[in-house]
Amino acid sequence: MKRRSFIQSSSALSLPFLVGNMPFTAVGKNKLFNLIGEENDKVLVLVQLQGGNDGLTTLIPIDQYDQLAQVRSNVLVPESSILKISDTIGFHPSMQSMQEVWDAGQLNIIQSVAYPNQNRSHFRSTDIWHTASEPDEFLTTGWMGRYFDLNYNSYPEGYPNSDCPDPFALTIGTIVSETCQGTFSNFSLTLTDPYNPGTVNIGEQGEAPNNCFGRELTYVREIARQTNAYSEVISGAANSGNNLSNKYPQQNNLAEKLKIVARLISGGLQTKIYVVQIGGFDLHSEQVVNGDPTQGNQTQLLNQLSDAICAFQDDCTKLGIAERVVGMTYSEFGRRIRSNESFGTDHGTAAPVLVFGSCVNPEIVGDNPEIDNQVGVQEGVPMQYDFRSVYATIMMDWFEIPEEQVREVLFEDFQRLPIIAGCNSVSNENVEDSPLQLDLFPNPAHGFVKLQLELNSSNVRIDLFDARGSLIKNISNKSIGKGSHEITIATQHLPAGSYFVRVTDADNQVTRKFVKM
Amino acid sequence: MDRRSSIGKLFGKSSDTKQTELTAPPPQAGLDPYTGPWTELQAGHLMKRCTFGPDQSLIEQAIGLGVDAAVDALFDNAKVFDPPVKYTYDESNEEFDNVPVVNEPVVSYGETWVNEPPIVDYGDQELNQRVLNSRFQSVYAWTYKNIYEEGFSIMSKLWMFWHNHFVVADFRLPLEQYQYANVLLSHATGNFKQLTKDITINPSMLRYLNGNENNRIAPNENYARELLELFTVGKGELAGPGDYTTFTEDDVIQIARVLTGWIIDIFSIDTVLQSRFILARHDIGQKQLSHRFNNEVISNGGEEEYSNLIDTIFNQDAVSENICRKLYRYFLNYEITDTIEEEVIKPMASILRDNDYEIRPALSALLKSEHFYSSEAVGCMIKNPTDFIVSMTRGIGFEMPTDIAPSYFFSLVFNIFSAEMEMFTYNHPDVAGWKAYYQEPQYYRTWINTYLLPRRNQSASSFVSGGPVAFNGGTAQVPPLIPVFDYIANFEDPYDPNVLIDSIANQIFSYPITTSQRDYLKEILIPGLPDYEWTVEYSEYLANPDNIQLQNAVGNRLQDLLVAMVEMPEFQLM
Asked: What's the complex ipTM?
């Protein structure tokens, strides 16, 4: 394997900047997250699209337009209205401001992200995304929560302290996100009014008995203590911080939340994770207006999303914090390829993830999904990238978390994707120069299908999925050596239908579809 | 109360209450009947879990009845509430001007509007909108008003359970909302299977989960999936591709076909709000279920097919086990260990099946069990916002007015407060209901975080002593709502500050407070003064209740005491 060359930053803070009117010493000097890289001051903003966003409406594969017109004509916008960002792909017409972010080189798009063995339950899928579990594994801790657990395992006891005066994570909203759930406690606080986070009278505390009452009482007391302990740093950051963009739209709840995030970061708050949410994507019906697919609920949502992210990027740039912040959108699943008769779409499989920020690799990662005009009613867009590869890449390339810890938190081998570029982080050069080659024949197949593989690394994982995205079989997960290989997969026992073969090595993956007759 | 005896205590021995008696026994698995002591700890526990924010008199009634009779009475007294009425005035009323005037030609103040057509057409757009808004508010208020007015009954608590089980969170018309609420009411203490049947073809449910769009040409799976995953068998572990142990992906497809054909009429002035079965939209083919349903085949049953389907689904033990887990998490505690699964959930589920899905015998067995009164059940539930709001109003002496306009007004305000604290009736975040009842590992802890806890405390203290509360996106001033003198008069010996504080604590908390906590609270009631000063001041007030200065001086002390108590973390639990 031709290893990517990592150019480590000499120091993350070689050029200190003043933030708001905070004294210089208050920023970047504390040892919070000293285990995340060396003095890593990076921030991740997670934008959760609740309900399952329709990826094929968000980013439309123009080269598949004719097939899309045959399977989802009642929700498909006219080809001429698509905001092209390349010859083969473009944004929904309501996403003009997202196109601005793309044009400014501040957007990275990862195609067809999902988890294997798609479950199609909102609740289970959301849990999987938040816990980063295997699809058949039940975890109660969040992926960032596990990371925090590894390094700050006594939390919340003893926090905040002089080394870690600020909250580890903040959910802008009223219900805490499971992403930061640790074994004993959630590392995220909740907040809606940064100027007035509130305080709590603690009173006189007796001893908590050793029973369920005592345990819950201790929890409430701990929240009371945290509320008071973090109240001042949060309102302090809000008062010192600023917003400089005039692009924030009116009546856009997501934009309001991101505006708070920008203000708190610029005010010097050293919080690593911010979580914001926008709901309403579960559009089984009335996704679009009958007769005009450019109008309707999906249009409004994508418009709000785009305007909010565009304003936030503009603000971060003007505030001088753009190089410290990346954001990422995700949703529990994409939707079916075929639309339904209710001008909506049902629960599907994969959808694109958008990563925004000044330090992202401004490219599209992965291929357009291939749309078959004979696609089954049940089929979603097949997975190209495991969502945990996105998490792992952000942990390593953005937060500079050591690889061993990333493996411990995410459990599995993952791909490192070209998401982050420049900005004292790592370089992605040479990522694209060693593509994995895969040919598959005969197609349609009867008793077997042969894979012709050209490998640049020795470790390879080969999986077979059905049309619903369920993992049928792991064909191989071992070192088979570089070079050419031919692998036969027996298919005589498989029911007729569409299948996907997905081959991954450390840096690349290829997904190919075949039909079993 | 006997005043002399308490004054006698002034110079007598310490007035420590019988604290040692007030502890719960260690956990017992199984549904063995509870036979231990029946004090305010156990009776209070039962009433806090089966009603919202019980006041002292409800708890005393329960103590008088004993465990079996108390549980029986909770069910016996459960009745379907009278429908909501027009609570807005027909003409302006100066006595209580918090309620608007909505001059509606057909329905007058105090009359119910639920027998009127679903949409309003008085030929005046603005009036129509005002009428619709006031009817919506009437349902929200009614839901809470029932809680305050029902007394010794499990109805509201069970209604809220079903409201969180069969979630509909999108209503376009007030009548839709009332009809839905009423379906839940009519079966709340009754039959789970029949409730499932009725809710399946309820107009609001058909619209919420797209059942009305489900037809033989274009099946819509939304309801079929939730029927299995949430409402009946629940989702088990992944056993194979598309196989969730309790059902399979193919079952979702087949069951969606079974449920084709149901529609609701377009709302109009002439329509009755009801669902209808249209044979032409129904898939009349055979529907083959998976081995998870014993490979049963559902044949064309036309209008009755949905009912046959639910009978088939209810043949699976998973249905009773799933609902018993939910009942357990709602009434007892969120943690279900393997032992509890085997020794509590399974026996309860078996009682439910033996009684053909009548809820009462199974739930009664749980509420009367040793397990329900153990130290792994008492006091460990974080109050949901409704529990919290009712316990900080009715629980500490707030009397709901009896006149229609003010009672609806206060009930509406309290419901909006609940929404501010993330429990918005008729508007759940999604079809799975409130996270507190399913989201691992947080469960009830979802109700409390660094945003919600300060809000709870601020509103609790403002309700007691008056002050600002966050409300409807702004800030509102509320007057003191708690008649503190009436409240403490309910206790045996309000003259002795130690006894008074302990009595309040024993009513509103689950366990007695510690001596140092009592001293802290006494310092708020009578700062830096000896105990007898309270007796003197309080007695003086009672002798001159109309003396404003005494009223304020003693009343303010009591308000301060109550604020400190409802702000204690202990008050968040029940």
From this structure: 0.92
